[in-house]
Write a structure and sequence with these properties.
Blueprint (H helix, E strand, L loop, with lengths): L4 H36 L3 H20 L5 H17 L2
Helix pairs in contact: 1-2, 2-3
Length: 87
């Protein structure tokens, strides 16, 4: 338990931020899973449509410091390579 009122406030803030980060991370994972399913099903049309939303989700996550910038860049690169293999 926090000993001071400022420590109590910091605890409340960190809990709110943790919940927000978990939500954002979960939504990112969902978008990635949808893309992966489309790639595994060799559905190029659906995968192409989902790729832009995946890129957007990765960029937003990097901007919000959910993942690091290079992590987002690396994932986009690898996912685009998967998409090219479908051709």
């Amino acid at each position: 338990m926090p000993n001071t009122s400022s420590a109590a406030k910091a605890l409340r803030q960190s809990e709110r931020r943790r919940i927000r980060n978990v939500r954002k991370k979960r939504s990112l994972r969902e978008v990635l899973k949808q893309f992966e399913k489309a790639v595994l099903a060799k559905n190029k049309d659906q995968a192409t449509k989902l790729f832009s939303s995946v890129q957007q989700a990765l960029d937003k996550s990097a901007k919000a410091n959910i993942i690091k910038k290079n992590n987002a860049s690396r994932r986009k690169s690898r996912l685009s390579a998967q998409l090219k293999k479908l051709a």
